[in-house]
Design goal:
With 305 residues, the chain is mostly helical. The protein has 16 helices and no strands. The protein folds into 2 domains: 66 residues, no CATH class; 231 residues, MetI-like (MetI-like fold), CATH 1.10.3720. Helix 6 packs parallel to helix 11 and helix 6 crosses helix 13. The longest helix has 34 residues. About 2% of the residues have low confidence.
């Protein structure tokens, strides 16, 4: 350390400065794990509570799920995840969810348009009823839908003479998914419609644009991101639905059995590894959907800006 002494003397620094410089030079840097531990220890209480809650509610259960699914090895995991029953359940779940999400994307946008642009008697009641699937227990919703759409129900009896069976079929599963995912589209599109200025539409009409041209070129572009976001959210909600579909469907393999019900059936058979395996597959697909939803939302924000 003799090379530091002339420098300190030339700068005319006090002795305690020199001792601090020398001690700082002699102190060895802490290992990376120690630096990480010190940062964790110095976190504020809000960060500590956040990490504790996320670990208890999310990270540890996910780790336990992956650990349980991996107990039989990769070969067993692949065998259960790609079994004919599981593949059929994936097909019923995701194909039906996609079709219902597209339907809700269209009709949910129309409902949001009517609620924003028109005044009519009972509008507040209709607007409040959109949130009914959020508040109604899914089992009650499934029981109600199964009663209404059964062969003896108010709506099912109208189709029964034509040989169309709704309840306890794949069509009944679609009805349940339509019911529980509709609010996501309406409540996502509705605020965007409320913020849109009518002056732009009136300007388009003054320039000679038709109603369809105004909608396609003026209204739809800023509205499309919210429609896609609501449709994606409704699709994700329909994929994970269990309470209503388990009642309105017959839960028959290769017919109308969905993946969440298959997980429950595995649990009833004490096949915990098989249940968690299918759960991991659903989790992976759900994560992909969430990433897609975030990309759509980011694209929508860039479009609005």
């Amino acid at each position: 350390m003799e090379f530091l002494t002339p420098l300190v003397e030339q700068l005319q620094l006090p002795n305690y400065f020199m001792s601090n410089i020398i001690s700082a030079h002699l102190v060895k840097p802490k290992p990376a794990w120690r630096q990480w531990f010190d940062r964790i220890r110095n976190l504020s209480w809000t960060w500590r509570i956040t990490w504790f809650y996320l670990s208890a509610m999310l990270l540890l259960p996910l780790a336990a799920m992956f650990s349980k699914a991996a107990t039989g090895g990769w070969a067993k995991f692949w065998e259960v995840a790609t079994s004919p029953v599981a593949l059929s359940a994936y097909d019923v779940t995701f194909t039906t969810s996609l079709i219902t999400a597209l339907f809700n994307g269209l009709f949910g946008t129309a409902i949001a348009w009517v609620l924003v642009r028109y005044d009519f008697p009972g509008k507040r009641i209709v607007d409040a009823s959109i949130d009914l699937p959020f508040a109604l227990p899914t089992a009650v919703a499934g029981l109600t839908l199964a009663t209404v759409y059964s062969d003896n129900g108010w709506i099912g009896s109208l189709f029964a003479p034509f040989g169309i069976k709704i309840a306890f079929t794949r069509l009944g599963v679609a009805i349940a998914m339509l019911f529980i995912s509709l609010p996501f589209v309406v409540r996502t599109v509705q605020p965007v419609l409320m913020e849109m200025e009518r002056d732009i539409e009136e300007a388009a009409w003054c320039l000679g644009a038709s109603d369809w041209q105004t909608f396609r070129q003026v209204i739809l572009p800023p509205l499309l991101p919210s429609i896609l976001t609501g449709t994606a959210l409704g699709f994700s909600r329909a994929v994970g639905e269990y309470g209503s579909t388990v009642i309105i469907a017959s839960n028959t393999p290769f017919k109308d059995l969905i993946a969440p019900v298959l997980v429950f059936q595995r649990l009833e058979q004490y096949d915990y590894a098989g249940a968690t395996t299918i759960g991991v597959v659903l989790l992976g697909i759900s994560l992909v959907l969430l990433v897609g939803i975030n990309i759509i939302q980011a694209w929508g924000q860039r479009h609005e800006n």
